[in-house]
Design brief:
The protein has helices at about 5-15, 40-45, 45-50, 50-55, 60-75, 80-90, 105-110, 170-180, 200-205, 235-245; strands spanning about 15-20, 95-100, 115, 120-125, 135-140, 160, 185-190, 210-215, 230. By secondary structure, the protein is α/β, with parallel strands linked by helices. Adenosine-5-diphosphoribose binds near residues 27, 191, 215 and 233.
Length: about 250
């Protein structure tokens, strides 16, 4: 049985499916990954832009970078990978989508049951966590009229609603993600499997007895631990699986 057929077969028999995605899923939409050849972290040092210390030090510089990314994402469209996964979440009961991506392209493709591990680039909150500004709110203006943007409640700075290096993930979000590792099939798609706790989920799923699958252009540190590793573009392989599993339109 070919690796792809084994995956299609497992998906056909599955009652519960969990999919974890990373930046590779948005690559075909023109959004650079973080660690790929043209990756964001190849061009800028994460410590200078994606940490609370960097924001404390130079909030304008940090916002200039997020504002640039927001405009790039605004001009992008969800690709076939986003559309296949979104339809699975809408049409296949028992499907959960976990993403590390903050770009909102899964949502724009109409995904449901979505768990956002690293927050959203389209949400902001008060940096000083003032009483009214301490929970995230949507601000999808791109470009932002003022950099750095100000909290409408206390006049202080607002920060992007993403999880920065050195920050913990929301406990409720992690608990939901861990729950979703109790599934029949777990797919990890377009992630280098370097950043934890996200990178631990596929191994947790395996321990729970899930059939585990990786879809990636290249080998990652998760590859040796999954049942099937499919090499190639997520936007192509997911369409192929979708057609073969008879869930395609
Ligand atoms: N199809 C499948 N995989 C792809 C594609 C594609 N079209 N294009 C790139 N990839 C793969 C790369 O081979 C790489 O393994 O996607 C992966 C992207 O890895 P990273 O750039 O490290 O992104 P990700 O794993 O999502 O990063 C995790 O790190 O920087 C932080 O918070 C940020 O959420 C991010 C986290």
């Amino acid at each position: 049985m070919s690796p792809l057929t084994a995956v299609v077969d497992a998906l056909r028999r599955a009652r519960t499916i969990t999919v974890l995605t990373g930046a590779g899923v948005s690559a075909a939409s023109g959004i650079p990954t973080f660690r790929g050849a043209d990756g964001l972290w190849k061009k800028v040092r994460a410590e200078t832009l994606a940490t609370p210390e960097a924001f404390e030090h130079d909030p304008k510089l940090v916002w200039e970078w997020y504002d640039w990314r927001r405009q790039m994402i605004r001009d992008a469209e969800p690709n076939a990978a986003h559309h296949v996964l979104a339809r699975w979440t809408r049409e296949r009961p028992g499907t959960t989508l976990i993403t590390q991506n903050v770009d909102g392209l899964h949502e724009r493709a109409g995904a449901e049951q979505l768990i956002r591990l690293h927050g959203s680039i389209w949400h902001v909150r008060c940096w000083k966590a003032c009483a009214t500004g301490c929970t995230d709110w949507l601000d999808n203006r791109a470009p932002l009229p003022q950099l750095p943007p100000r909290c409408p409640h206390c006049g202080g700075l607002v920060r992007p609603g993403v999880v920065w290096f050195g920050e913990s993930l929301d406990r409720g979000v992690i608990a939901r993600a861990l729950d979703a590792t109790r599934c029949d099939v777990f797919l990890t798609v377009g992630t280098s499997a370097i950043v934890y706790p996200a990178a631990g989920l596929v191994h947790q799923a395996k321990r729970h007895g899930a059939f585990t699958v990786e879809i990636n252009l290249e080998e990652t540190s998760a590859s040796s631990g999954v049942d099937v590793a499919l090499r190639g573009k997520a936007e192509e392989i997911l369409q192929e699986i979708d057609r073969a599993a008879g869930t395609g339109h």
